[in-house]
Amino acid sequence: MKFFRKSALAVLAVVAALTLSACGSSADEAALGGKVGLAYDIGGRGDKSFNDSAAEGLDRAKAEFGIEAKEVTVTTGSDSEREDKLRLLAKAGYNPIIAVGYLYAGPIKLVATDYPNISFAIIDDSSVALPNVSALVFAEEQGSYLVGVAAALASKSGKVGYIGGVRTPLLQKFEAGFAAGVKATKASATVEVKYITEPPDFGGFNDPAKAKVIAKGMIDKGIDVIYSAAGGSGAGNFAAATEAAAAGKKVWTIGVDSDQYLNASADEQKNMLTSMLKGVGTSVYDVIAAAKAGSTVSDPVADGIVGRIYDLARDGVGVSYSGGYIDQFKAQIDAAIEGIKSGAIVVPTKP
């Protein structure tokens, strides 16, 4: 009997070891980016701006690495909904999990604390000091400075406008850089600033109707270049410029995050001066590529914060030349790029 008990225990031990080995293999595979979770902000894939830029990075990684991916999108935009989406991905074994937008900061801190063996990343936030959370942040003010240069050179009236989605420190970085670029290029130019909503109302990122009303108001004041940093709401700016063109008024628009010229209608393209490019897709791809290599994106960002800073030096921000409308300004834009990279131009981050 003792022999059989020992034999049975030995078999059980082998089975347990094999089971643990199998579980470890699955965990390792997940850690290598075999299953990637992407949580979009309001608007999700198809917003032709911020979320779509993230989707481009995911699509590139899927094509290159053959990974399985799960995409989720918030609808109400509450913290509890964001937390639920992240927990859904974590419970299902997705690793890494990437949150698109700073509004995920609170929820990701809670979920990442509960799942210390899963790697998380968050775009546009550097407030979560956890070893398993990568902060992916951008020098939006630098890219906005460049489109400000283009706006000042393209404007006939010397009046330009900025439409922000929600008045937050992040969107004010866009505002500050844009205004600085305009004024450095043409000191006499004026910049009118309007935000679609104020916190805690974050609907300004997905309200093109309100953006259109604001843009039309600017056009009525003689503003002839309008930069919108408002996610899906930017469509309202483009629509207002299209209507102005039909009425005989030339109004240039400036897109944001992705090259919005590429997804614009033919009529919208005629008025789209440029877009401020933000490498959101690159950051998503970098996180997945690092996971496939068995590591994480963990450059020093701030005290206790790891991740990556995407600035001009890293080609993390820039401008689009689609349409050819700013080709004539390339020398001035290149000079601004070099000035920023060298430190000769210090772009403000606050208005």
Q: Would you mind describing this structure in some detail?
A:
With 351 residues, the chain is an alpha/beta fold. It has two domains: 33-138 and 281-310, Rossmann fold (3-Layer(aba) Sandwich), CATH 3.40.50.2300; 140-277 and 321-342, Rossmann fold. Helix content is 45%, strand content 21%. The chain is built from eleven helices and 13 strands. The strands form two sheets. The protein has a seven-stranded mixed β-sheet, sandwiched between helices. A six-stranded mixed β-sheet has the order 7-6-8-9-10-13, with helices on both faces. β11 and β12 (305-310) form a beta hairpin. α2 runs parallel beside α10 and α5 packs antiparallel against α11. The longest helix has 30 residues, at 2-31. The radius of gyration is 23 Å and the shape is globular. It starts with a helix and ends in a 9-residue tail after the last helix. Mean pLDDT is 91; it is low at 1-30.
CATH C-level of the largest domain: Alpha Beta
What is the quaternary state of this protein?
single chain
Tally of structural domains: 2
Please list the strands of the largest sheet in the order they lie side by side. Answer: 2-1-3-4-5-12-11
Give me the CATH superfamily of the largest domain: Response regulator
What fold name goes in the CATH topology slot of the largest domain? Rossmann fold
Which shape, going by the Cα principal axes?
A: globular
Main pleated sheet: 7 strands, mixed
- Radius of gyration, whole Å: 23 Å
Helix/strand-derived category reads alpha/beta
Helix content: 40-55%
Order of helices and strands: HEHEHEHEEHEHEHEHEHEHEEEH
Mean pLDDT: 91
